[in-house]
């Protein structure tokens, strides 16, 4: 019978732990960075050895079941570990400075598993036959990825992925309290990161059944994730976020409902 003990401030406050935590945070960020680059190639079918429409083929039933399980695993991990209640329990056992890095590492691991075990369903739903138009659609997908990265840097990219937390802990600097900000793109849509993902997933010159399934399920998850995230943001910022929510569209610029 084993017991789990929390790591108290006496351990997490030592110089050796701070250095190890920093290395852990940087390694987690590196894994994330490789994962997101692979994700671009996976969705667009570029460079990477296994894309969304390549790999070992299987029956339609097996492909649907396996792919849904893989996406569900990521969705559950990504949502549950981000909730306030889970964090309160989780940080009893995982030191707070590396909590975000651990979350990022777990999310990256789920995505890497998805890329590895994804079952292609190559039947074509629709495709763009005109070469110039096909290139334009592919560039639109790439623009979606650029929007994702740009939006993370407009807020705090390194805090979002755990680097700031371990760096501040290393130099004994207090992590600043969350502040409500709406820089640039956030003045037009509340969730430009999610908008970028949706564009990247749906703008495909060739839309196969497998790609369509991936885009549809991830878009559904994004909408659920927005609902959960905005509930937390209202709890954190109160009327300030409620006013922002009434004033700025969720995903479609200048459209109040979306």
Average pLDDT rating: 91
Oligomer: single chain
Shape: globular
How far is the N terminus from the C terminus? 52 Å
Class derived from helix and strand content? mainly alpha
Q: How many E-type strands?
A: 2
Unreliable stretches (pLDDT < 50, length at least 5) are: 1-9
Largest sheet: 2 strands, antiparallel
- The figure for the number of domains is 1
Biggest sheet strand line-up? 1-2
Tell me the β content.
under 5%
Tag the structure with descriptive keywords:
single chain, two-stranded antiparallel ribbon, 64% helix, disordered N terminus, 258 residues, 2 strands, mainly alpha, 11 helices
Set down the secondary structure blueprint.
Layout: H1 9-12, H2 15-44, H3 60-80, H4 84-90, H5 99-117, E1 124-127, H6 131-154, H7 157-160, H8 163-170, H9 192-202, E2 206-208, H10 209-237, H11 239-247
Antiparallel strand pairs: 1-2
Helix pairs in contact: 2-5, 2-8, 3-5, 3-10, 6-9, 9-10, 10-11
Offer a concise description of the structure:
This protein is mainly α and 258 residues long.
Describe this structure in words.
- The chain is an all-alpha fold and 258 residues long.
- The chain has one domain (9-247).
- Helix content is 64%, strand content 3%.
- It is built from 11 helices and 2 strands.
- A two-stranded antiparallel ribbon has the order 1-2.
- It starts with 8 loop residues before the first helix and ends in an 11-residue tail after the last helix.
